[in-house]
Amino acid sequence: MPERRRSSDRTGRDPVNADESTDGPAGPSGEDMENKARNLVLRMLTHSPRTRAQLDRSLHRRGYEEEVVTRVLDRIEEAGLIDDAAFARGWVSSRHHSRGLSRRALSRELRTRGVEEETVREAVAEIDDEDEREAARALARKKLAGTRGRDQEVRIRRALGALARKGYPAGMSYRLVREELEAEGEESDLLADPDL
């Protein structure tokens, strides 16, 4: 089977590797590698915000040496183009409001993106208990409304499952589902535990 080629610009050059110049048979010089790495990072940042750790992993996966990666990322960070704290604040705000994720789920997502623990704590602290509870309540209400007419056990299970997938604590979830069912005029023995 023939090898698939990357798309190229009008000159026939591969735009991703267009700046590949080599110094003889040994390959690109250190400066060329830094330029290539810098250009790659700038392209990635143009596409979407990234953490320093994400950029670091991406450069290492592409075979760049540690010294090159560190120098390039240090320079770009000094220029203010990499800011993990700003990334974390934006991520938390966006994902909490658009997806209804809990602080716990947001913390987990930020950690997987390489954000340091202190920065994660500061970013999720911007969501207070009341904001989190109201987001969970809205989700519980939506899930219960979508299952009206079904068996109550099914309704409760689906609402609790949705809240769990968004990272909300079990106690809060049970309490909110119970309150929303009561607001609909229903009572449930399934949620009768007074400790919840």
The count of domains is 3
Tally of helical runs: 9
Structural class: mainly alpha
Distance between the termini: 62 Å
- Overall radius of gyration: 25 Å
Strand fraction band? under 5%
Low-pLDDT ranges? 1-26
Largest sheet: none
SSE ordering: HHHHHHHHH
Total beta-strand segments: 0
What is the helical fraction, as a range of percent?
A: 55-70%
Output mean pLDDT: 85
- What is the global morphology? elongated
Q: How does this structure look, described?
A:
The chain has 196 residues and is mostly helical. It folds into 3 domains: 29-78, Arc Repressor Mutant, subunit A (Orthogonal Bundle); 84-124; 129-191. 61% of the residues lie in helices and 0% in strands. The protein contains 9 helices and no strands. Helix 2 runs antiparallel to helix 3 (66-78) and helix 8 packs across helix 9. The longest helix is centred in the N-terminal third of the chain and has 18 residues, at 30-47. The protein is elongated, with a radius of gyration of 25 Å. One of its GO terms (biological process) is regulation of DNA repair. Pfam families: RecX_HTH1, RecX_HTH2, RecX_HTH3. Residues 83-123 form the RecX second three-helical domain.
